[in-house]
Specification:
- It is a single chain.
- About 30% of the residues lie in helices and about 20% in strands.
- The chain has five helices and five strands.
- Strands 1, 2, 3, 4 and 5 form a five-stranded antiparallel sheet that branches.
- β3 and β4 form a beta hairpin.
- The chain is globular and about 40 Å long.
- About 5% of the residues have low confidence.
Amino acid sequence: MRHLAQWFDSIETGKPFVSCKICQNTLSTTGRSWVINKHYHRKECVMEYAICDHCRDEVAGSFSESSKAAIRDFLETKIDWEQRMLEWKKLDQPIKRMDHCVACTMPREWMLGFTISAQFRNDSSLIEGALPLLLCSHCVSQITESLSPESRETWNRFISMYFEGPDSPDYYPGIF
């Protein structure tokens, strides 16, 4: 059985991520934590990346205030964090956190797609708290739909600059 941190190894290399997708700095030498996001569609990873905290803050900082508020609202109102943290503490295997959407609790096997996110310390160890988590594509779409046109453009620019893009026309990887 895979360990929780192995969910966040690169599909491309089969190993942990080494560098930030944006600045290309080696993650373990930045002195900061980083986030890994992976987007799945029909059980296939269609996009994955690691991004250092500095670059993530730069991208997130360019979102409109209304988009930041909408994302915060979703995270605060659609997810029962107290309940999720209690459930996660009771798990005999932490990897089971990846079995359901953190917001709507839909089982992963029922999902058309999902996004997983985790945060790692500068020593490459997984930080367990609100992350790692899994969000189904429906919940990710709710977040994406709440973004302002300017913030969607920021996200689209990020996608076009750093990815060739998924081939499926019915999949739009959301922001998270």
